[in-house]
From TrEMBL:
Domain Enoyl-CoA hydratase/isomerase, first and last residues per copy: 13-327
Organism: Sagittula salina
Coiled coil residues, start to end: none
Pfam family, one: NAD_binding_11
Gene: mmsB
Gene3D superfamilies referenced in this protein's UniProt entry, alphabetically: 2-enoyl-CoA Hydratase, Chain A, domain 1, N-(1-d-carboxylethyl)-l-norvaline Dehydrogenase, domain 2, NAD(P)-binding Rossmann-like Domain
Pathway where this protein functions: Amino-acid degradation; L-valine degradation
Record-level GO BP terms: branched-chain amino acid catabolic process
Name under which the protein is recorded: 3-hydroxyisobutyrate dehydrogenase
Tagged with keyword rRNA-binding: no
Entries under CDD domains matching the protein: crotonase-like (cd06558)
UniProt KW keywords: Branched-chain amino acid catabolism, NAD, Oxidoreductase
InterPro entries in UniProt: 3-OH-isobutyrate_DH-rel_CS, 6-PGluconate_DH-like_C_sf, 6PGD_dom2, 6PGDH_NADP-bd, ClpP/crotonase-like_dom_sf, ECH_dom, HIBADH, HIBADH-like_NADP-bd
Record-listed E.C. numbers: 1.1.1.31
Similarity annotation: Belongs to the HIBADH-related family.
Amino acid sequence: MDDLHIRRTGRTGRITLTRPQALNALTYQMCHDIEAALDGWRHDDAVSLIILDAEGEKAFCAGGDIAEMYRTGTSGNYDYGRRFWRDEYRLNAKLAEYPKPVVAFLNGFTMGGGVGLGGHVSHRIVGQSSKISMPECAIGFVPDVGGTHLLAQAPGRLGEYLGLTAYRMNAADALYAGFADHFIPEDTWSALKERLAESGNVEALQGAGAGPAPLAALRPEIDALFAGERLQDIVNALRSAATEFAQRTLATMERHAPLAMATTVEMLHRLRGPSLSIRKALELEYRVSHRIMEHGDFLEGIRAAIIDKDRQPHWRHALDRMPQVDVSKLLRPLGPDTLDFKERAMHIAFIGLGNMGAPMAANLAAAGHQVTGFDVAGTTTEGVTKAPTAPEAVRGADLVITMLPNGDILRAVAAEVVPHMKPGAVLLDCSTVDVAAARAVAMMAEEAGLKALDAPVSGGIGGASAGTLTFMVGGSDEAFEIAKPLFEIMGQKAVHCGASGNGQAAKICNNMILGVTMIATCEAFALADKLGLSREAMFDVVSTSSGYSWSMNAYCPAPGVGPTSPADNGYNPGFAAELMLKDLRLSQKAAEAADADTPMGHAACELYRSFVEEEDGKGRDFSAMLPRFETRRRGN
């Protein structure tokens, strides 16, 4: 262990990185040795806390030692890198979740792998020399080692800025952005470590003022420029801004790998929210790590920066021609190769293997869970064991998932399967149904000694396949915690909305907004056409102005404008108009029951009713309202 000095001093376990000539970059063996030390001290009563530090003045840890990854990767052997990342990420999670205080002294450069080592622990100390950054996009990679966990929690849009530009934070910046906890002058560190070793008590940590954070002054401009849904939105905003900061930032980003930057933006948007956890971030990062050498720019980035040092990387994509589908490919679930935190696989029953249910069940099976499925049409999907009946499917299951067309069918299926479920199991309904049906089924389950959740989804068939759904969940805290690992496989976000039925309430309110905004977006495009305004100009203005909405920016109803959407495929449904009508009817039924005034929701419901039942909307995407408005005149 020449690269590490591991020992016990007083009441502390001490781990010191001893590669100052290599800026204390982490090797594979160092990761294993650090993990072994942590495991040994976990239950050692003589060790009250852990100290992480490093020799030399230049760096705590400037990243991972990637030379061997390059050598093996360029020979076509991707397994070495994958093993390194799997084991390193397990260490990162262990540090974040360690049951005893861990104090890291982050002097000098703390970059990449150094952030994974010292950035998630309970007490992160910075000083005058601290320079912290996530520089991965510069070498064709994405922020990893749990870096996305920190970036997604940074104030405003600092996460996108820090991840895309590799900006080096000083001590004040690191405190402001959430990468550090205490500023302590470095000339006191030696004495402080002695006090910690003697007392074994973190009360000895007394932070001082680090001064103003440059990032705090820049944040209003960063928040405005980096608020886009995708990388192209951010690039467009930077190009449109006349400030020196915007142009300097754009020049930096133009040197970085477009695929890496676009993937970073998508990762942060998926992770940001109340369901964020270190394990969720690491699992998403590992999807990229597992594929990056074969399908990304990582090897080329290392060549240009580290091996040949010509600083002339040949990236796969140009900045303005970055297909989002390549981002999706990097972020798809890995199936049997999913990052393993040694959690027990669950026995899951899945009832309803239609367009949504089948890919959701397949993703669960691909993640290593035992999935038994049943559908009245006799369909099945990859990795799922087919059961002859619904009661047969649910016998012995830890958790039963239903994805069904309406509340009446949900009630009937629940009445059929609940008597056959094992005590304590969870009934998780992902259908979109009326609130009353959701609450009735939850009561039925609870009376039978089961736990129940209603968790309707947003994201459509594409989100079900890609594992990027959003779940709006109603039910008990206990049931939510049991199902949370499954939400993280099937989706990008799960929001616990409260008691049973609240998930359905959130879904119908969300989709009422979606229906109304899509109609407004289509009306505006049709008006722009008749006023002689080009659709491209319309999109460029609205997508970066106060008219910004998901309907415009992510699901634009005008073909050939904005990111690819069903409009570019003849309005073949991603989310069918009749499904939007169903959700709007549910919202109006709920509004009537709650005595709520929803005039816009009512108007949207009536428009979609006419579109589906009297016109040509059935079987088309809900954004096909645009060609409808194109042919209509005022008053007809």
